[in-house]
Amino acid sequence: MEQYVVKGGVPLRGEVSIGGAKNAALGILAAAIMTDETVTIENVPNVRDTRVLLQAIEGIGAKVKYIYNNTVQINGGSISDLNVEYEYIRKIRASYYLLGALLGKYKESNVALPGGCNIGSRPIDQHLKGFKALGAKVNIDHGVVSAKAENLVGGHIYFDVVTVGATINLMMASCMAEGETILENAAKEPHIVDVANFLNAMGANIKGAGTDVIRIKGVNRLHGCTYSIIPDQIEAGTFMMAAAATRGDIVIKDVIPKHLESITAKLLEMGCKLVEGDDWIRVIAEGEVGSTNVKTLPYPGFPTDMQPQIAVALALAKGSSMVTESIFENRFKYVDELNRMGAKIKVEGNTAYIEGVEKFTSAQLSAPDLRAGAALVIAALAADGISQIDDIEYIQRGYEDFEGKLSALGAIIAKVDSERELQKFKLKIG
User: Fold this and answer.
1) Is 45 annotated for ligand binding?
2) With CB atoms 3.0 to 4.6 Å apart as the test, which of 222, 279, 336, 371 could cross-link to 202 if both were Cys?
3) Which sequence positions carry the modification called 2-(S-cysteinyl)pyruvic acid O-phosphothioketal (predicted)?
4) pLDDT tens-place string over residues 288-303
């Protein structure tokens, strides 16, 4: 099994370039099958989640061609199967976007119920309620969601909770429905806007993405286009927290600073220095880092996907902090691992009470999910000694060449898959 081995205690310094947004890519790749023409998508992050989704898309008969590492061409004209198998879904939750895409295009889709990171319950009731409002009959049988309609007709859909997945799925399902669809209490995340912009580039008529009311006028068909995915705000935020935790100085390039405002606000409260350009941010954390309180909220609030990373930085800050998780109930599974490294964190309900410590010590760690895994790598980078992190396939779901980018910033990190490689690393670093 592959693992990361990290020798900590080195402040990260230098420049890092951010890849395309994983969460936007998953919606956009699914939406690309909605035309019979060829779609070229640039800045696709080469991570496990996007690769699995592309395999699922090939599995139903679409043609997928990698032009080079981060550009993909998709042609949905040859789709022959409207059934997405469990094999793909259990690896990656976002395969459920194929429900909305296939339903929108063919008025039918059959997709196995999703898996993904175990960070709490993520029901798909709002997706199904939306499909029904457009006129689809929805059944769940033997673990498969089937949606079918004679005709999709625009409707007025009010989401009971703010949901990114259902907002994206309903934008896709309704963009070729008859008449107008209104989505109220819609999610406002940057990747919602990106998926809407992509669909519009294919000829859809979507207005209001990025606000809580999205209006979609149905069109007869969608066409091919070339589109570039936005930068990944969570990858950028992860490197920003790595600078804070290791007392480093990192320039994070190829970002949209506006998307990072909730993260930069917290780093400023913690006493970090920030310098901002049009498409870059520099985080300087040399000296003392202070405490703050954080509550995760839907965008533009502080992202739940950044909660474990900021908790690591706060566990090494001076003073007491509180981190409240209001999105997912199972998101503190990394806390036990941090406490084994010397952190002082107590979880009560959905709040972590953090007492900052001066340093962590190394440990054998296990990544419980994608973002917590990245947070444990940051903790290992800040710790004294050599740490090993298992179950890194979670981390590889959402970060492209994580160890390579960290190494370029001066981190002493390697990916190893045998005891021999591990000993070689230890010998090399002395």
Assistant:
1) no
2) 222
3) 117
4) 999 999 999 999 999 9
